[in-house]
Write a structure and sequence with these properties.
One of its GO terms (molecular function) is cyclic-di-GMP binding. InterPro entries: PilZ_domain. This is PilZ domain-containing protein. Strand 13 and strand 14 form a beta hairpin. It contains two helices and 17 strands. The longest helix has 21 residues.
Length: 229
């Protein structure tokens, strides 16, 4: 069975935010704050006010020195469900205060295809076609743990159903993900481009976990970039 992809669902209603935060406080859930060095800092919440500000004890083993403009991400879990929010920590003598700016429910979905945002740098480069070395750059349209859809120029290669491909997936400036798969669908988009449907073979290349991690990170980047705009 394929690994579930994590999908970000925004929680925009203030009453829903307050209910979740109060539940986390009642269950004495630990908040995990990630700093710019990607270190996880464990915080114990003390209280939550009506403005969705969480007052926490100082971490036991870490000294926090932050600028109020520094942006952090924080996460907590309730009943096995994980939540993530953006915050600018304010450190005082006795407490660390976290204002919840954007709250997301991280939902696990199987066979979910994530459509790449427009103008986002997402590329699928075929390096081997039927075990013959090549270099065919394609635009990545969507991606899941099961496979992907890509656009390729018609003149780039002589392609057929069941062709074997080995490729690298480039998402922004992240490390490339190596994948192997089979072309399961070919359709004409227009006079110059084809759309390929590729089914991955994770037994040949253990790329599934890397896809899940990269897409989770990409969604965090996209959502927080939109909120900052």
């Amino acid at each position: 069975m394929s690994e579930a992809l994590i999908v970000f669902k925004a929680i925009g209603n203030d009453s829903d935010k307050q209910m979740l935060l109060q539940k986390a406080l009642a269950k004495k859930e630990t908040l995990y704050l990630r700093d710019k060095f990607d270190r996880a800092i464990a915080l114990k919440p003390v209280s939550i006010n009506s403005n969705n500000q969480i007052k926490c004890h100082h971490p036991e083993d870490t000294t926090m020195n932050t600028n109020e403009k520094d942006t952090f991400t924080a996460s907590f879990s309730i009943g096995g469900e994980k939540y993530l929010f953006e915050t600018h920590p304010v450190v005082s003598e006795h407490y660390v205060t976290l204002t919840v700016l954007n709250l997301f429910h991280l939902q696990r979905r199987r066979n979910y295809r994530y459509v790449m945002p427009e103008n986002y740098s997402a590329e699928f480069v075929i390096n081997y076609l039927n075990q013959s070395i090549c270099s065919h750059p394609c635009r990545l349209i969507d991606l899941s743990t099961e496979g992907c859809a890509v656009e390729i120029m018609q003149e780039s290669a002589n392609l057929h159903l069941e062709d074997l491909v080995e490729a690298e997936i480039f998402l922004g400036d992240r490390e490339p993900i190596m994948v192997q798969g089979v072309i399961k669908n070919i359709r004409v988009k227009d006079d110059t481009q084809l759309v390929l449907g590729v089914e991955f073979n994770h037994l040949a290349n253990s790329s599934e976990e890397k896809i899940v991690t990269s897409l989770t990170d990409l969604q965090r980047e996209i959502f927080f970039r939109r909120k900052a705009a």
